[in-house]
Amino acid sequence: MKLKPLRLLPLPLSCCLLTAGITAASAAPAVTRLNPPSALFTFGDPSPPYIARFAVGQRFDLQATLSVDEGKSIKSATFSLDDGAPLPGTVSITDLGSNRFSVALRAFSSTVAGVHTFTVTAVQNDNQPAQATGNLEIVGFTTAGKKAKNIIYLIGDGMGIAHRTAARIITGNVKMGKPESTLAMDRLPSTALINTASLNSIVTDSAPGAACYSTGNKSNNNQEGVFPDDTTSGTLNKWDNPRVEHMGSYLARTQGKALGIVTTADVEDATPASFAVHAQDRGAGTGICDMFLDEAVAKANRRVLMGGGRRWFLPQSTPGSGRVGSTTAGGADYQLPPDIAAGWGVPEGIVDPERDLILAFQNQGFFYASNRTTLNELPANEDRLLGLFHSGNMDIAMDKIASRRGGAKVGSVAAFPDQPMLDEMTDKALQVLSKNPLGFVLMIEGASIDKQAHNMDTERWILDTVEFDKSIARVMAFQEANPDTLIIVTADHECAGINLIGSANVTNATLVTRSTQKGNDGVQGVTSGTGPVPDGQSTLRSVVGTYDAAGFPQYTLNGDGYPATMDVDFKLLIGYAGSGDRYEDWLTNPAPNVAGVSRDVQGDFFLPGQATGAGASNAVHTASDIPLSAGGRGASQFTGVMDNTEVYFKALQAAVGGAK
């Protein structure tokens, strides 16, 4: 795709005379947005790369927004492919207000591979026409070997190269330049680098960062399974965007595969929702979780859903419920426009804050587990599983491990003391999904790698990466017994600009002493309304050993496979390029989810954030490429540098056309 300079051409005299007499009130209607997005419509450029790409037979919506003359309306509209006859189906016409209309043809698909143009033609009620053209690609599959029966995505949310390296150093004990052991993900044979930009930014958030793997398409930040539209208000605003069919639905419809989603986050969070839901607002928890049952069970053969987020499943009158009786508020419920419901063959939905969603899942044949104990009681013959182990995000690996070892219960572990680890959830998901003889698509997310990197809580995101790797090891063991399985390990984006800057050049006891010295003036650091006002402690800055002084930090693993302590002598030290404001003393934080400007203040070593301005305490996502590792049937396709959407098509090639 090349952007060409614009050149103004002189208009013929007759045209000038004609346009001089036309006022804004009588201007012709115009197409202001055309979906699927294309450079042809936006820039007038028909060349690749093609923004919107779909698998043969994959369903998606065609949609256009039109501006009309004052007081006018759109009376008819059609869509066509390659300048052919109007496509069959009902084109809906919706008044958006402010002299704008949306026209849409829902759930269209094509079986003809190749690059196509598509055109919308609309007629205003005074017979003035409007027309616009975009392009898209339909991707076919070649017959290329044995097919993958199962596709397993493992997404370490926010996990960049440095996150993986830190976990390897912690668990592998590097000596004389080589680790004694590697991560499970390191042993997967194929490796690629993935570009992560969303449709509207070089820096993606988790919704489009995950939806690219489930739909093969870019979307705007905060949106999942949809293209952007122009409805900005109204009761259906969050739910009327043009849709793209998910991989789970596509393979359930065409091959009978099952779908499973496992996460350590709230199940309504962006990554899990991006594999089964269509929403403009990634935070619409009530509707997202309702849609998990109402649509994904019926249309994607959903068999497994596990994570946190129990609050969305409890009736609003039940203590701890988070359900919302609105389609527009935060945490909104869903209600679909009639044309989406009819076109996609799904329920319209209703606002139902008193819905008992756990009971509704059970009525659909799901075994329900509320904790690790009941999860372990899962009968061997169960083929549907709902596990909700926390009201919100599940607790972090470090804090669950400490509790299991008999240590302090920090975070919310005291309230939810019997949460499973991600590898334990993975085992049960594989047990259930394997019951489907036609195979499955499974997404497993290590969610708090990202959440703790946002908080610049080094030890916690490292141990969440270790927990994630243990889940990968379980999947690799499954693949060894089931060689027709494709494993894809990657991330949705990088979080916090993390890198390994060296090791402490002092013992842990020295760090503890310096962490309470209150800076050069003997006064503990404070924060003002515009940000921290410290004097800065040079003794904490000077502990960073770089180059030769970094040496090889050594950690001792307990029998559970996690370090006995993260506060070893000469420990690994981490820097953050996408940081928020924080104090740093290099020691493990005793409690999770405490802002960086509110912890470690006695040491008075303040590091100003580079990302978000004075007083902001969260690190941010970056635009850095992320690693991908693959193994099993079709893994040889994943090499080099590729766009994140390409992962979807390579996975489908393995499932539909086969691969070596």
The CATH class name of the largest domain reads: Alpha Beta
- Overall structural class, as computed from helix and strand content, comes to alpha/beta
Number of helices: 17
What is the residue-mean pLDDT, rounded to a whole number? 93
* Spans where pLDDT lies below 50 across 5 or more residues: 2-25
> What name does the CATH topology of the largest domain carry?
Alkaline Phosphatase, subunit A
Q: In the residues, how many domains can be counted?
A: 3
- CATH architectural designation of the largest domain: 3-Layer(aba) Sandwich
Major β-sheet, in short?
A: 10 strands, mixed
Distance between the termini: 32 Å
The count of β-strands is 29
Whole-number radius of gyration?
27 Å
CATH superfamily of the largest domain: Alkaline Phosphatase, subunit A
What general form does the structure show?
globular
**Strand order, largest beta sheet:** 15-16-14-13-17-9-18-28-12-29
Q: Helicity, in percent?
A: 10-25%
- Tell me what portion of residues adopts beta-strand conformation: 15-25%
